Amino acid sequence: MTRINTPFNAKTTAAEILIGVDLTGRRIIVTGGASGIGLETVRALRGAGAEVTVATRNPTGDQRALDLSDLGSVRAFVAGWTGPVHAIVANAGIMALPTRQVAANGWELQLATNFLGHFALITGLRENLRQAGDARVVMVSSGAQLRAPFDFDDPHFEHRPYDPWAAYAQSKTADVLLAVGLARHWAADGVTANAFEPGYIHTNLQRHLDDATMRAVGAMDEEGNLVTPDYYKTPEQGAATSVLLAASPLLDGVTGRFFSDNQEAEVVRGGPDVPAGVAAWSVDPAAADRLWDYALTATADH
Ligand SMILES: NC(=O)c1ccc[n+]([C@@H]2O[C@H](COP(=O)([O-])OP(=O)(O)OC[C@H]3O[C@@H](n4cnc5c(N)ncnc54)[C@H](OP(=O)(O)O)[C@@H]3O)[C@@H](O)[C@H]2O)c1
């Protein structure tokens, strides 16, 4: 399968992706759209004329309430939605919680927020996506998907020792597998789904990292000042691939793929030292189907 290339690069901004694109009449939901990459995604989509709903835990103005770690909140959001949805950008996320935290229903909180809540939201809005005729789902994943496959035996760290990065990594692998699953299961509804990693961007996401970890990843100097290495992106650049996948005509009909720096990524072996690409375990169709079944059962039971 030929990899998709676009004229854009790592430093392209979200607004630049949409130059000349008219999104008037397109209704788009962005989870976590009140901060960081999500906020810039919202700005760019609105700038091109889309009707964007910001779904956030603490809504103000015309934002809508959504707590992804609470299926009651997800169901209330779904119940309150009428009419078509042209795109869902599954952007909200939390990273590397230092200790194992669980949602009210007992789910490990990163898996609950980053994956299972989004699964419930997207499947809850299936009919609304179908109504759009050509809806898109964008899963905001991470380079962390290279670090761990989905652990079907113990997704909630009930039997293995909790590890902040393993928990984040598996949730981000699950996000990619969901895009693959949607591509496999909902093509007849006209729905396409793709995933991407935004790169490194200073946002609130890093709030759970201690100074030693920030230094280890090159994001802080010895005096405790934030450092911005050359390979870091601004939030406007970090949002570019989100907008590309949600709304660019260049992606019409493209589905089940993973992008990085606005290009389709190479499928690679995952592991601790692999620098780039998408892990084979993140795009494995058998794992996508197994995860689909797991998530359907899990979200139906709670
Ligand atoms: N920044 C990076 O370098 C980087 C790298 C790779 C991947 N990513 C991914 O990019 C996405 C956006 O992150 P960001 O960097 O922009 O960080 P951010 O500014 O912290 O944004 C994350 C958003 O998720 C929302 N959120 C958290 N828990 C939620 C919940 N239970 N229900 C609903 N919303 C919830 C947050 O809302 P609140 O304001 O309520 O907390 C926040 O708006 C994430 O999925 C992240 O994993 C980021």
UniProtKB/TrEMBL annotation:
Q: Could you confirm whether the keyword NADP appears in this record?
A: yes
Q: What's a Gene Ontology MF term here?
A: oxidoreductase activity
Q: Name one Pfam family in it.
A: adh_short
Family indicated by similarity:
Belongs to the short-chain dehydrogenases/reductases (SDR) family.
What is the name listed in the Swiss-Prot or TrEMBL entry for this protein?
Probable oxidoreductase
Keywords noted in UniProt? NADP, Oxidoreductase
Where does this protein have coiled-coil stretches?
A: none
PROSITE patterns annotated for this entry? ADH_SHORT
